[in-house]
Amino acid sequence: MKHRIQFIIICVFALIFVVLSFVISENDKSSPLPDEALYIKISTTEMTTKTTNTQATTTNKVQPSETIAEADTATILNDESQTETETIPLTSPIRLEYGKGNMYFDSSPENKFIQKIVNERNIDEKLCVSVFALPDEGLNYVLEFSDLSFTFDDLRRVYLIDINGNLDSVAAKDSSERENVTAVENNICMNVLIKKGVFPCIEQYLGGT
Question: Cα dist. 204→96, 143, 173 in Å?
C-alpha cells in the first residue's frame, strides 16, 4: 500500500513536470528571439521611414503643380479682363462727371449700343449718341435726336438697354412714342434724368451744327 502511494505521488510530479515543460516550450516558440525582435523593430522603422519619405516626396511634387495652377488661373483672369476691355467697340469714350463716376459718353457709330438701336429700329446712326456705365450695370442709354443740332429740344427718344444687351424700354419727347414705361416714368426720364442729370454732362461733347 505504501509503495502504491509513493508511485502515485511520483506519477503526479512527473505529469506536472511534463505540463510545465510543454507550456514553457510553447511560450518560447511564440516569443521572438532577441535577434528576431530586433529585426522586426528595424524592418518596421525602415517601413515607416520609407512611407514618410514617399509622402514628403509626393507633397514636394504637388506643390509646384499647385503653384503653376495658381499662376495659370491668374493669367486666365488677366486675359479675360483684357479680352473684355478689348471687345468693347468704342473709339473714344469720354468719362463723365456724373453719378458714381463710371458713366461714359460716346458718339461713334461703332458703339455697340448705337449699333444695336440702329439695326433694330432702322434709324440714322449720325443722330444717335450713347451714355453707358462701365462696368456694365444695365444703365446703357442711346439718345436719338431729330436733327444734327443735338440740343435737348431736338432730343426725340431715349432707349434703355439692359445688362444683357436687350432693349428694355423707350422714353420719348412725344409721350405717345414711349414703350414699356408709364407716362409718369416717361416724364421723369426725359425731364429729370436726361434734362437735368445727363444732358448738362454731355452737352459740351455733342458738337451740334
Answer: 11, 15, 21
Q: Is the peptide bond before 135 cis (omega within 30 degrees of 0)?
A: yes
Phi, psi of 165 (to 5 degrees): 85, 15
Q: Which three cell numbers stand for residue 94?
A: 469720354
CA pair distance 114, 120, nearest whole angstrom: 10
Phi first, then psi: give them for residue 145, nearest 5 degrees.
-105, 160
What is the β-pairing status of strands 103-106 and 140-145?
Answer: unpaired
Report how far apart, in Å, the C-alpha atoms of 152 and of each of 38, 173, 194 are: 99, 10, 9
Model pTM? 0.56
Q: Which residue has the cell 426725340?
A: 156
Q: How far apart are CA 142 and CA 117, in angstroms?
A: 8
**Residue 114 near residue 157, CB atoms below 8 Å:** no
Q: Which three cell numbers stand for residue 40?
A: 522586426
CA 143 – CA 202 distance, rounded (Å):
11
Per-residue pLDDT tens over the stretch 127-182 = 999 999 988 888 899 999 999 999 999 999 999 999 999 999 999 999 999 999 99
The alpha-carbon radius of gyration of the chain (Å, integer) is 46
Enter the C-alpha cell of residue 164.
444683357
Q: Is the pLDDT of residue 209 over 50?
A: no
Which amino acid, 108?
A: S
